[in-house]
Amino acid sequence: MDLFEKCFQFTEAKEAMEGGYYPYFLPLEDTEGTEVVIRGQRLIMIGSNNYLGLTTHPKVRQAAIDAIKHYGPSCTGSRFLNGNLQLIMELEEKLARFMGKESALVFSTGFQTNLGAISSLVGRHDVVITDKEDHASIVDGCRLSYGTMKRYKHNDAADLERVLQSCPENSGRLVVVDGVFSMGGDLADLPAIIPICKKYGAKLMVDDAHGVGIIGDARGTAVHYGVNDQVDLIMGTFSKSFASLGGFLVGDEPVIHYIQHLARSLIFSASITPPNVAAAMASLEIMETEPERRERVLAISERMGYEYRRMGYNIGNTVTPIIPIIIGERLSTVFLWQRLFQEGVYTNPVVEPAVPPGTCLLRTSYMATHTDEQMDQVLETFERVGKEVGII
Predict the structure, then answer these.
(1) Which of 135, 203, 210, 224 is catalytic?
(2) How many domains are there within the chain?
(3) Is the Cα torsion angle 379, 382, 388, 392 positive or negative in sign?
(4) How far apart are CA 159 and CA 99, in angstroms?
(5) Which of 34, 378, 23, 95 is nearest to 250 (CA)?
(6) Is 198 considered catalytic here?
(7) Does 283 participate in catalysis according to the annotation?
(8) In the structure, what pLDDT confidence band is assigned to residue 298 with cuts at 50, 70 and 90?
(9) Among 289, 319, 334, which residue terminates a domain?
(10) Same structural domain, 62 and 206
């Protein structure tokens, strides 16, 4: 069989393009944070992870500009050899202190952070256990390890215990869970998960890409629950609230030191760029000094969630700025996305296999910089279009 035959047989995306309902890889011609321009049309953006709205903050932008002027646009090498800027190490010290952990390690992307951490820790005789709705980077990190991967039902502590019971007695065990689940906006039940991990000698890693900056006084899900000292590793990204690009891991110094010297995604990748480091550092400072941004985005989210439920939309169990509009059926989801897009509202359609069968949804998310007038317009559009297409 010709290796490329599958490529020529893949026609679904092109059919959607020709039909005018292809929702991915859309070219952003301009963005001001809360609004974007696509093919000349201006839309209200409620599909971004820019929760604190820091991409337009003058301090963040100036920090990135200054870093380019001083260091240039890239280090052109791995941190392991010639790309380990002192600026990166300074950011690591600040992150460790901010997150209440001994040590931090910065990667070039959040995806690489999970790949490197999990694959370096989980060996041939170890077991890694994940929530069924964990992010793809966690799944791929498990696949790259030499250990055995097991999964448990979403946010089901009893099922987690069942899986841990099935692990060989002499195996090392790592439980990896999203702090804030990226599609549903709900939180991992850490107070239920932690005692089970302790009972079976499992270490716990929390991917808090969507939690840090927003909940737990900006320090994430573990601080939100008051269990920060009982979580072994916490991962975060710079591509959400930090308005940059990159990822980081915090934990005990010996564990971080080990990952630093074994994580292939760190050692064999070019280091995070200077402007990304500087932007993340400036964003961290703003998180600590401007709590009103966090308060604003949470207030917006509470309002939007209440109004969507009032209209009759199913938004699941979200308690964060991620609000899913759960439609269920794929074509109806894409059709609602298309009509909202035509009316000037940008959302993210998420279909199988990114979500479980029968739970296709529009992923909406909100920023501290959204205005009340913009949210009024979004709600009016959702109510009018939802009735028009028969979803509410």
Answers:
(1) 210
(2) 2
(3) negative
(4) 29
(5) 95
(6) no
(7) no
(8) very high
(9) 289
(10) yes
